[in-house]
TrEMBL record:
SUPFAM superfamilies per the UniProt record, alphabetical: Homeodomain-like, Tetracyclin repressor-like, C-terminal domain
Keyword Transcription regulation (UniProt): yes
Protein name: TetR family transcriptional regulator
Keywords from the named record: DNA-binding, Transcription, Transcription regulation
UniProt-listed PANTHER family: HTH-TYPE TRANSCRIPTIONAL REGULATOR BETI (PTHR30055:SF234), HTH-TYPE TRANSCRIPTIONAL REGULATOR RUTR (PTHR30055)
GO molecular function: DNA-binding transcription factor activity; transcription cis-regulatory region binding
């Protein structure tokens, strides 16, 4: 788990390790870049490197958090009150693609980080979720009251699924997943409007429950895999 350095020197050392790791990943490949190699190139002892980052996956997690924070800064001002829900959804997707595009090669590593974390209980999720809350609360007209509270979570879970598609998209400039995100915005906006109807609102609740249960099953399976008793039994 990444620590937050309290001194300027510590912040500079952590930033140097992060930048050096990215250079190593680009030159040697992600798999070949061990913590020992990263520390040596940064001119830092291995124990010191482990003080700031517990693993190279931890470095990738910090990179992903930095990119999502950059997306937040870039996108938050665009989510002005008065935009349509479709426009706000597209703004979040577009800003995400803008900041993530140079790091597409890390897509699988990003996903590994996401799957290793608690779904809601981390800083990364808080940044992502706040964007979707802003997208919903700033939309005009406001989404139906019956789904307004749960719509940010629905959009956040959906964005994680679309991010998975982007991470493994080998089409030129990830054209397929970009088109998927672009087309998802009007579909979700129309679905939200239709949720004024009780039968459609019930469908929304079922879909959200299904998406939530999928995450719960994944977390349960990961917990079992890490349980020595379960591992021994299997």
């Amino acid at each position: 788990m990444t620590i937050q350095p309290r001194t300027l020197k510590g912040q500079e050392t952590q930033a140097k390790l992060l930048h050096t790791a990215l250079d190593c990943f680009a030159a040697e490949g992600y798999k070949a870049s061990s913590m020992r190699v990263i520390a040596a190139r940064a001119g830092v002892s291995l124990s010191h490197a482990y003080y700031y980052f517990s693993s190279k996956e931890d470095i990738v997690a910090r990179l992903l958090l930095n990119l999502r924070t950059e997306q937040f800064d870039q996108c938050h001002a665009a989510l002005n009150e008065g935009n349509t829900l479709e426009s706000n959804i597209r703004s979040v997707f577009t800003s995400g693609l803008d900041v993530m595009q140079p790091y597409h090669e890390f897509g699988p590593a990003f996903l590994k980080v996401l799957l290793s974390q608690d779904l809601m209980d981390n800083e990364l999720s808080a940044v992502e979720f706040s964007l979707w809350e802003k997208a919903v609360s700033g939309a005009r007209p406001l989404p139906p009251l019956g789904i307004r509270r749960d719509l940010p979570k629905f959009l956040w879970l959906l964005s994680r699924q679309l991010f998975s598609a982007w991470a493994y998209d080998q089409s030129a400039n990830q054209r397929r997943s970009m088109l998927l995100m672009n087309n998802a915005a009007p579909v979700v906006a129309k679905f939200a409007v239709l949720c004024r109807l009780p039968v459609v609102r019930s469908l929304f609740e079922d879909v959200l429950s299904l998406m939530d249960s999928g995450s719960s099953i994944r977390d349960h399976e990961e917990g079992q895999a890490s349980d020595p008793k379960v591992s021994k039994a299997s």
